[in-house]
């Protein structure tokens, strides 16, 4: 089931506090480089450092009191995990996070710092799923999928409502795509509110399941994607693919070099800390400027959680 | 001669376009750590990457057409140099920049990228001064001092006019101090507009001439300061010292470790690229929280020009 525009509007009210209404920043350098008017939605400033807080908080707040008492569970070591922990703490309920044993220490510490209860497991999907199911059985916690969940999709989509208010006459919206929660949410919001606004996905060529799925007309998955954009390694679900194939204008893929160059550009020129996954939409606009030239283009900077000890250009 | 409040207001009109009205950002993390309400003025987003553009543009725009035709000259390898080059380019006039031979390549490239005409000289003050004077004689260019100049001081002070509009009931303003152009400008603006607002300076302990000068009641200078805050190595002039001693509430000094910790905090929690010199005001609030607790404190993030290949915590 897909969320409706009414669901998205309800989500916006439900999460308005304490979600940040993040600013939209512009840059003459970016405009000169792309030949477009670029509007950057700074979800790196979002609570938890990523737009994922929107969907996580919407899902947590939609739980009944009885459900909430038992907490929430997910398997992830990325921004969904930290943001779910933060959303759960905000409601005063436990968040059980299943993390592969080999996940970076820095990510494990971030989840714990936001109050998440960590459980380590073997680094494969079967082990993660089994461990999350075990925790559900024992605790009664509700499983919150990082993207294959209508509440999560509606929460992420609130970003588009803000963007349409902040930037009049937006002609294009470009966002990174991984599991498709954000992209499908933006598709639904744009379709409902601004049907003339094109929505594009941007994807690392090393994790191009959305691109290939649209080409083939059927759901394909990534196998061990190794892109530096560590937040974009997941594959679409049937639900997100269904929404995206119906509404998306297209997917642009980018190389690892293009991701790193875009990241460096944002840090140097815009003075913003954005993670590799977070700059992929901008990388796509720089890689395929002919699609966007002369237009008013919204670009989502999805997050800013990056290991400052290890920058990709070093 | 000190600029008056009328001079500062005139400067604000003179430079309004293309100067950025930079945003003021807040952070629950900072508020929790300091026990104060911290309002960060993001001059790292300013054109040229630093507040220095304000003073440079005000000085350049105050030149007569005849003066302007001959260009401007300064000796600096820092933000004043790049921002003066940018301001000169904006008026379509040459900017001659005298740079010590051993200045980092990255800074030389930045000056050149903004259209500055570089002249290399031996790395000592006598050589820099002599070379700048030679250029003045040959070209007729006007020398624009980085801080000992009323137009520059009035330009930097426009930052305070914005801050008072952006943050109601600001009780304290904290800014890094080097040559004192910004601090003296903020002192004059606050004295004229909001005399109950305390103005504090923040200084690296390794370049603490302002602190010592105030203690001793006479102008003292730094000798070969080695602080990582490379924008804060200059010493006050008689002019800036005179203004500051009259109006400043005090100077807080910080260690190198405190500067690096504050910088990391801003990058990690606020997702902002701020240079070491740019976080010294925040470092001071963190180092002496008892002075600021419970109050509404404006902190100037003065700039964001940093070598991304070499971060201080690596």
Secondary-structure map:
2 copies of one chain form a homodimer.
Chain A: H1 5-15, E1 24-25, H2 28-34, E2 37-42, H3 52-61, H4 65-69, E3 72-75, H5 79-91, E4 95-100, H6 105-113, E5 117-121, H7 125-139, E6 142-143, H8 150-166, E7 172-176, H9 181-193, E8 198-204, H10 209-216, H11 238-247, E9 250-254, H12 256-270, H13 280-287, E10 296-301
Parallel strand pairs in A: 2-10, 3-4, 3-6, 4-5, 7-8, 7-10, 8-9
Antiparallel strand pairs in A: 1-2
Structure description:
2 copies of one chain form a homodimer. Chain A has 13 helices and 10 strands. Chain A folds into 2 domains: 5-47 and 149-301, Rossmann fold, CATH 3.40.50.1100; 53-143, Rossmann fold. The longest helix of chain A has 17 residues, at 150-166. In chain A, strand 7 (172-176), helix 9 (181-193) and strand 8 form a beta-alpha-beta unit. In chain A, helix 1 packs across helix 3 (52-61). The model of chain A has no long low-confidence stretch (mean pLDDT 96). Chain A is globular, with a radius of gyration of 18 Å. In chain A, 45% of the residues lie in helices and 15% in strands. Chain A has helices at 5-15, 28-34, 52-61, 65-69, 79-91, 105-113, 125-139, 150-166, 181-193, 209-216, 238-247, 256-270, 280-287, and strands at residues 24-25, 37-42, 72-75, 95-100, 117-121, 142-143, 172-176, 198-204, 250-254, 296-301. In chain A, the strands form 2 sheets. In chain A, strands 1-2-10-7-8-9 form a 6-stranded mixed beta sheet, with helices on both faces. With 314 residues, chain A is an alpha/beta fold. Chains A and B meet through helix 12 of A and helix 12 of B.
């Amino acid at each position: 089931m897909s969320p409706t525009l009414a669901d998205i509007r309800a989500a916006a009210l439900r999460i308005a506090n304490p979600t940040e209404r993040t600013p939209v920043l512009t840059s003459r350098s970016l405009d000169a480089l792309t030949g477009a008017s670029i509007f950057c939605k700074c979800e790196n400033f979002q609570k938890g450092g990523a737009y994922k807080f929107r969907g996580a908080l919407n899902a947590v707040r939609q739980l009944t009191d009885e459900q909430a008492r038992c907490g929430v569970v997910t398997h992830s070591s990325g921004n969904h995990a930290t943001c779910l922990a933060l959303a759960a703490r905000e409601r005063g309920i436990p968040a059980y996070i299943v993390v592969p044993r080999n996940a970076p220490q820095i990510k494990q510490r971030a989840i714990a710092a936001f109050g998440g209860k960590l459980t380590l497991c073997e680094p494969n999907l079967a082990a993660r799923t089994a461990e999350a199911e075990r925790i559900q059985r024992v605790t009664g916690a509700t499983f919150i999928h990082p993207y294959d969940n209508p509440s999560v999709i509606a929460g992420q989509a609130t970003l588009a409502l803000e963007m349409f208010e902040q930037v009049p006459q937006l002609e294009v919206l470009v966002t990174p795509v991984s599991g498709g929660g954000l992209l499908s949410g933006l598709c639904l919001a744009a379709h409902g509110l601004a049907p003339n606004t094109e929505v594009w996905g941007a994807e690392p060529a090393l994790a191009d399941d959305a691109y290939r799925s649209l080409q083939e007309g059927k759901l394909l998955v990534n196998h061990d994607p190794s892109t530096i954009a560590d937040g974009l390694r997941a594959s679409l679900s049937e639900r997100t693919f269904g929404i995206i194939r119906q509404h998306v204008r297209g997917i642009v893929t980018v190389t690892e070099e293009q991701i790193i160059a875009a990241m460096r550009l944002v840090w140097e020129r815009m003075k913003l800390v954005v993670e590799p996954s977070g700059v992929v939409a901008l990388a796509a606009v720089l890689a395929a400027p002919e699609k966007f030239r002369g237009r008013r283009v919204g670009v989502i900077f999805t997050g800013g959680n990056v290991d400052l000890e290890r920058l990709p250009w070093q």
